[in-house]
Write a structure and sequence with these properties.
17 helices, three-stranded mixed sheet, globular, about 5% strand, 5 strands, two-stranded antiparallel ribbon, Growth Hormone, Chain: A, mainly alpha
Length: about 475
Amino acid sequence: MTDTATEPQADPGARVAPTTTSAPAAPLSHRPGRWIDGWNPEDHVQWEGVGRRIARRNLSWSIFAEFLGFVVWQLWSIVAVTLPNAGFDLDTGQVFWLISIPSLVGATLRIPYSFLVPKFGGRNWTIISAGLLLLPTIALTVCVSNPETPFPVLLAAAALAGFGGGNFASSMSNITFFYPAREKGWALGLNAAGGNLGAAVAQFVVPIAITIGAGVTLNLPVAGWLWIPLIVVAMFGAWKYMDNLSNAKADFAGSAAALREPHLWILALLYIGTFGSFIGFASVFPKLIADQFPDFSAIAVGGASVSLAFLGALVGSLARPYGGRLSDRFGGARITMAAFATMGVVTVAVIATLPLGSFWVFLGCFLVLFAAAGIGNGSTYRMIPAVFAARGAAGDADGAVSTQRKAAAALGLISAIGAYGGFLIPQALNLSFQTTGGYDGAFGVFVAVYGGLLLLTWAVYARRSSRLAGNRI
């Protein structure tokens, strides 16, 4: 959505000779407010002189801030499940809304967030976006302190957690300006991985924090207080160590052209199926465990409780880079098809084995599902630049805007659309429970959707007679 034009062409595994400018680069200069003029990471002399060090410093603090964004985004996935045990009068449908509303808000915020780095500066917007995380953490702390808090107030507090989901778009947009094309893929991969791991850390740490030393009660406000000092550290680090680039510009024309491209919407559907499944199941996994296997919802370890739900988000996060690596070798369409096939088969296995009442079988099935979704995240994301490049090479693309610019804009748009899966999956499970008293109906729909997306991927990108046949998608 912003001009991340060079990212789609980057191959982190390729050996590319350093790019040097044919003309002398503009001198690198600093202005008050940590603004940098003359930034050009493609200039080899500048990059090897001071550019790499500056870029790494900005990447480090960007990862930390985005990590906290994902933490805040996923806080209610754990807290909502514990509210009934803490004296809150909530039904299952209300708990599902508290789990899913952060994803709805976060996905929507990703769209405007992508344009705000060029407007405010990467450093400045990181300070602001990190500061905005104080709103949902403080709101959570206040609301869960009183079991009499009305549900609409709880829902509003959960919606504020969507600020954390929006951070991904602005963080990725910012980092793409700092790195040359030959290193952009690796840098963005680290940035994304650091954020995704925040979901797993939140689901691991929060159950321990709210139970340790609490006796028979739950110290729910700690779930919010715990992250406030770290958010302040992120704000200070961004203020002191990050930089604004004066040449970072938003690409509104690229975004408008990408929206007119039919393949953007096809790829967005695939990304809902992969990333949407990852973030959706990550959000709802603690709830599913609590409903199906309450004895394993919280495992006592010393004076604290540990939830194994974090393993799903952890496995999915760690699997994502392998999706990109496998796609480089075998093609993104093939790996995406394999991911959907695996997700469909494993979901059938979940339906078949639930009557057995075995938590470990249930957990094993879901970890495979998370791994497949994570691999699918990477492979689908890797398909985006390949599809747009193939369209350009075939002369099918609108020449008014370069293929590279449209592909870059599509990456931001598709990441926003895919995040809506974090809302759709919990709500599908909620609807199934409300109408049938169980989750088999929703799981059956998921199987059909994965099968449909597999066929769509094959028909458009892998079938020999398709318009893109012969291209390595």
